[in-house]
Amino acid sequence: MIKKIIPIVILLFITSCKSTKVVTGGAINTNLSPKAIIKSHYANEIDFNTISGKMKIDYNDGENSQGFSVSLRIEKDKAIWISAPLGIVKAYITPERVSFYNKLDNSYFDGDFSYLSKILGTDLDFEKVQNLLLGQAILDLKKGKYQATVTAESYNLKPKNAADLFKILFQVEPKHFKIAKQQISQPEKNNLLNIKYSNYQEVSNRILPNEINIVAKMDGKESNIDIEYRNIELDRKVKFPYSIPNGFKEIILK
User: Fold this and answer.
1) For the chain, what is the domain count?
2) Is residue 125 part of a domain?
3) 250, part of any domain
4) β-strand partners of 216
5) Domain range for 109
6) CB of 21 within 8 A of CB of 206?
7) Regions of the chain with pLDDT less than 70
8) Nearest-angstrom CA–CA distance, 182 and 172
9) What CA–CA distance (Å, rounded) separates 31 from 150?
10) For a Cys staple, 36 with which of 11, 27, 32, 199, CB 3.0–4.6 Å?
């Protein structure tokens, strides 16, 4: 069951962008305080109403590998909709609900974020998923105190008071202060969520991810998801056609 569901669940974590201009480079300012880095990160958060487009996804869990393209629509803070060709698989996520169905085996799931949280080994909600898609920190950096170090390519933020059970790292790129990498791990349980943004792109004068790699380790198993964003349009009117077909069998996730 897990092998059937994971590729569908992965669809909930992807956005889609048209490759128009890849953004690279940026000079490091070694004098910036952690507070200034965090302030700049949120000051550069993308402003949009809707996103629509397509994306290419490559998935590998060591036993199975798949590559496929899907369509995506997002309405900011309200809905994420994903559809495979011919609507064979569809997913719909809102702040209250996570739902998908699969016409290949006539099954569906309709529930909360608990299973998604289990798959990626960290608590998730709609805001965190949306932030992951857009290159924003999945945790609220304004609520904690961080210390900063710099490398040739990024600002590195770690909590001043490190938790015993969780290790947290955020790398911020210097050009637009978007996330270059965010990592949450539980060393004692060998759990890891590592999200790397290889580069960004400029679309309609706004900055969005171009390529993302997600590595999720949990219970001794590792999943790798490579994402290439394509064909984005911003702020067009979009609809979210979604209805679970009659007669489909509900998937009960444990």
Assistant:
1) 1
2) yes
3) no
4) 193, 223
5) 2-244
6) no
7) 1-25, 119, 121, 163-165, 254
8) 9
9) 10
10) 32
